[in-house]
């Protein structure tokens, strides 16, 4: 009986176990599949994540050596999202997956190699396989989630070797953000779109502290929502792409989707209530035939102006008088306070309207036609310093502005580009022919100002002229991969013809002319911005033709080498021959070493060759005229300034690529870039150099002149570090990326014409042929280090990211406009700063994603100008600020006004701007899901 009882219990247990297994099979499901590359090679170690959207439960698996994977015991139903990711390959995302109880859902994934189009002419190179360092920035994710809306600011917080800071009170640079790479000049980074040369702006940066004397590319003319990714080649590449690529190359890849799209909206504001931003953007893909596409993007954005910590100092910028009693009495009599004379000193107000297209059509099996381009219209509004009775009483007309006025510098910018081309299969060879045209126009309008020499009938708005630049590039490239030569050899060669045209457009006479209706002593021209006079108007053209050959060979499966040779001839200064050699060796599977050696050149921009303008300098003691004169001007020739030639470079780089785990990679690259005959703006020179220059200055009725000149030899050395890691943590996914750039530029030599040798060695720094401020901006005007640390976690419908950006020290000489000051200016030192951003994402449905966040959550500001002066050095070699101030008081009988404009412009836009904390919200609705 006891045995019978035990047998019954055993049978019952077996029945219950079988029932439970049957129930589990009926209430769970599984996913299996295989993963291979686009070369039909099984991929091991690929991460596959299945996310159950209703609960946020995340299950993961890794593929085995045959590429197979399986995820069991999944909840029935859905929807699920499948994420397939592997470094070096483009990720795959599958949405709207539903699972059936007791059944396996089978998938076959083919991952496309995440090849790069910059730095190589092979079609199968990945970033980690490249012999030179390349950053790949996913703009699809960043444009939809980060606080910034324009390209320069998005990249500022994503790439450590890239720097761009919005300028203030810097003329046209308030409206076009200058950008640089590896601490070099704005014009030493070449920009491509879809692998084709992008035109530069018509603007030369003449003021501020970024890119002074340089001409750059306006990245903000391209809508971020139109971009798939940005590739940044951190190595000289002039031999591959021509002039301007001394520091590196940025290639902007436009979206090429033939379906779907998105609607992106965003808004944000600073915690001080200004700087409102609004963005609305639509992207949509369309099919063009069975293998073609048309991708369109339309967007508009608004950015409000900002002002921070304005005040007025009697020694610097008083309203009525430098005497305190007189100042207070005049303010009381006028019924005004300093609040009525607030100086706008932050971001300019900007409105952008953009349209971008990218298209491809397969005309035949061997012919693909492509086209891309876009248009950007921008309105900008910035403020010049106030015109006030204390310093410019003659330039105030009481019947119009009785107590002074703050001129507004307004711009209208039109930027357009279009490319057409074809890729033609010629047997095993491929021919790519294209023509790219680009146009940039900038016009100035000055408002809330007057021309005091006209008198009471003066208008208060002036059309001040501007400039425009047109570039056309025609090229042809033939390439072929020889798979059986060594372990694979790619040969490419081609030619390019480029034509540039630059024009300075004359302004209305009222904006530059001097009339007799005003008071004696009244200055001619519109205050705040002097219009372009007929003497400044100029039109010029330049053409160049070049040819290149580019060979990349895999000597073995572990060792690759490449070389590029290029010859170019310019119509205005002659020819250049340059070359580049690179190599990469896979030491062991997780470790590769790489290096490059190249020569390069940068042709002087047509803007630098032709630019000329007279301007009014506002100083604490009034205004004075100065002028920039080009190589053809009488003043330049009288001064003995040589004609501009090209900059020449020699650079080395070496590094390693470490991939010990499928989810971890690390790269380190050191570099040295030597540049000879670097083009800068000279110092400002008055009478006394020689009789011919004195006579020329008198004929132009100006006080000082300056010129573009090949005057500098520099050496830049640096180190780039990049690491990324991804790990499944709990029910979610954790990612960490760290990247850093360390760089140092030193002056190796000065090239000074004989007429100016004595000025370079005298005791007056304000008459140096090479301006000390320019030298300091080149040597220490960019952060010496920049470090990024981003931490992210994704769990179901939620995600969070913490971004930290460390900006290193920045140092340079302050401006100096006082003609009585012969001892120089403060050397300003801005201490390092760290900016922290917080991003929180939520995806309520498969089509809608929301991101809320804070930029600069800790409300970090750079040093004020006054703090930077105390961190740095006072003028004239004085040991302390107190000693210098005592000397100044004794010599001039008044308190020092240095550093200049410390009250109305208390901050300089050095490392990261000075708007403080910014809160924002972005929403993206995906079309076609």
From TrEMBL:
Determine the domain of life of the protein's source: Bacteria
Which parts of the sequence belong to the TonB-dependent receptor-like beta-barrel domain? 371-857
Q: Which residues form the signal peptide?
A: 1-24
For this entry, the protein name equals TonB-dependent receptor
Q: Which locations, inside or outside the cell, does it occupy?
A: Cell outer membrane
Similarity comment: family membership: Belongs to the TonB-dependent receptor family.
The alphabetical list of record keywords is: Cell outer membrane, Membrane, Receptor, Signal, TonB box, Transmembrane, Transmembrane beta strand, Transport
Q: Where is the TonB-dependent receptor plug domain?
A: 129-249
Write down the Pfam families for this protein, in alphabetical order.
Answer: CarboxypepD_reg, Plug, TonB_dep_Rec_b-barrel
The answer to keyword Transport applying to this record is yes
Q: Has keyword Lipid biosynthesis?
A: no
Membrane topology value:
Multi-pass membrane protein
| Major site of localization recorded for this protein | membrane
